[in-house]
Design brief:
By secondary structure, the protein is an all-alpha fold. The chain is 66% helix and 3% strand. The strands form two sheets. Strands 1-2 form a two-stranded antiparallel ribbon. The chain has a two-stranded antiparallel sheet with strand order 3-4. A hairpin with a 3-residue loop joins strand 1 and strand 2. Helix 8 runs parallel beside helix 10. The longest helix is centred in the first third of the chain and has 35 residues, at 2-36.
Length: 444
């Protein structure tokens, strides 16, 4: 009876702390936008965050929920777009930002809870929960964007599989909850297929019951089938071009991306004191990629819950970063999830040290990290600059349509998106906007 009460008390503390971590994460996600530009909260409708609810306005929720984007399903942002479309169009900017903050908070709360259930201490668990909103690289473009919510799903799903609860605690309730998360992730981003390897490792280790692993594998396969069906039937399929150049681009970009953990540091040739030429080793990126990969493999093979967890976080980061870059070209977004997972791996590794450290020592480290990251905490100008300001754009379209409801307008989202007036997009997920929709719904 005493053990049962203790378990309930621990669970209650974890729940309360999870809610607190989630609230802090959601607020900080909004704060980084406001910090970059106070107008961004009410004047920036970011790229897909606008075109998805616009699709709902034109074609209806169910049609748009399953419509391909860039040749694949992007399920969660489409799902949330149905909520955005319910509010007046003038309020889409504030609504999308608030919903994105709520989503960031939920993922942070669940990530914290996963870390605590795995047995990590309070410091490591809190940091792991907050990583998706505090890491500098997130502020470049991904912060508080519904279209980037797949990053949150990949992060949380990897934590769930790399840091599982005790095998005998995984009942049907938890099996179902994780299955829903994995299905949602795979329906949102095909890279979720990497989770099949994580499940296999954990089932072989008996860290996860085979029945639960089988259920999770089945839902992932179902999600991948849906993604494949969408890809082969997309009107404008995703252009895939694997080449040695794209792979080298990813490898060469790794060191510079990792250095964003210390904003301002760069790996480049320069003249020391203007006299002495200094150049980095050309294969630095290859060494870094190889070190992370080999280190992850060694940790997984050596066994032990903590080491395997760290190893799986490292390896998953490599895969989810390399695959989209290699097949589609370099993009800063493809490095966000790897850095989050590698930072989480570092926190798992540092957890024993954090537990032994006195509170004042932890506080000093927190202050130092905050000081180093401080210059990068405001979201970038690219993410926060209204281009164009949303309410001005809505007013422009409404005025144009008042004169002739038979016209067709093209609405533009920040940052002057989509490029080429949406030539890469297809209806109904397209910025083309019949004035009959504007007159009937926005002005009606």
């Amino acid at each position: 009876m005493s053990q049962q009460r203790d378990a309930l008390a621990v669970g209650g503390h974890t729940l309360s702390a999870s809610v607190l971590v989630g609230a802090v994460a959601g607020l900080f996600s909004l704060l980084r936008l406001w910090w970059g530009n106070p107008d961004s909260l009410t004047q920036v409708v970011w790229a897909e965050d606008g075109v998805f609810p616009l699709c709902v306005e034109k074609a209806g929720f169910l049609t748009c929920l399953l419509d391909p984007f860039a040749g694949y399903l992007l399920f969660l942002p489409r799902l949330v777009a149905g909520l955005v479309a319910l509010v007046p169009v003038e309020q889409w900017a504030l609504t999308t930002n608030l919903l994105a903050a709520v989503l960031a908070g939920v993922v942070a709360a669940l990530s914290f809870a996963v870390a605590r259930r795995f047995g990590l201490g309070w410091v490591a668990s809190v940091v792991i929960g907050l990583l998706p909103v505090i890491v500098p690289v997130v502020g470049f473009e991904a912060i508080n964007a519904l279209g980037s919510s797949y990053m949150l799903l990949l992060y949380l799903s990897t934590l769930v599989l790399a840091l599982p609860v005790r095998s005998h605690d995984i009942g049907w309730r938890m099996t179902t909850a994780v299955a829903v998360l994995l299905l949602l992730t795979t329906l949102t981003i095909p890279t979720g297929g990497v989770f099949l390897a994580l499940i296999l490792v954990q089932v072989v280790r008996r860290a996860v019951p085979w029945r639960a692993g089988l259920v999770w594998a089945v839902v992932i396969v179902l999600g991948l089938i849906a993604q494949w069906f969408t890809a082969v039937n997309a009107e404008k399929p995703r252009q895939i071009a694997v080449s040695g150049d794209s792979f080298r681009g990813w490898v060469d970009s790794l060191p510079a991306t990792i250095l964003t953990f210390w904003p301002g540091l760069r790996l480049e040739s320069y003249d020391f004191f203007g006299v002495f030429p200094v150049s980095p080793l050309p294969i630095t990126g290859a060494i870094v990629a190889l070190a992370i990969t080999i280190g992850g493999l060694v940790l997984v093979i050596r066994g032990g819950d903590g080491m395997v967890g760290i190893g799986l976080l490292l390896l998953t980061g490599v895969v989810v970063g390399a695959v989209p870059t290699v097949i589609g070209g370099s993009n800063n977004r493809y490095f966000v999830v790897p850095l989050l997972l590698w930072a989480a791996a570092a926190m798992v590794a540092l957890d024993p040290l954090a537990r032994r450290s006195r509170p004042w020592m932890v506080a000093i480290v927190v202050v130092i990290v905050a000081a180093v990251w401080w210059p990068a905490m405001p979201a970038s100008w690219f993410r926060t600059m209204p281009a164009p300001p949303w309410q001005e754009e809505v007013l422009r379209v409404e005025n144009a349509c008042k004169g002739d409801p038979a016209l067709q307008e093209r609405i533009i989202f920040s940052p002057y998106w989509p490029p080429n007036w949406g030539d890469a997009l297809s209806e109904p997920t397209h910025p083309n906007l019949p004035c009959v929709v504007v007159v009937g719904k926005w002005l009606g």
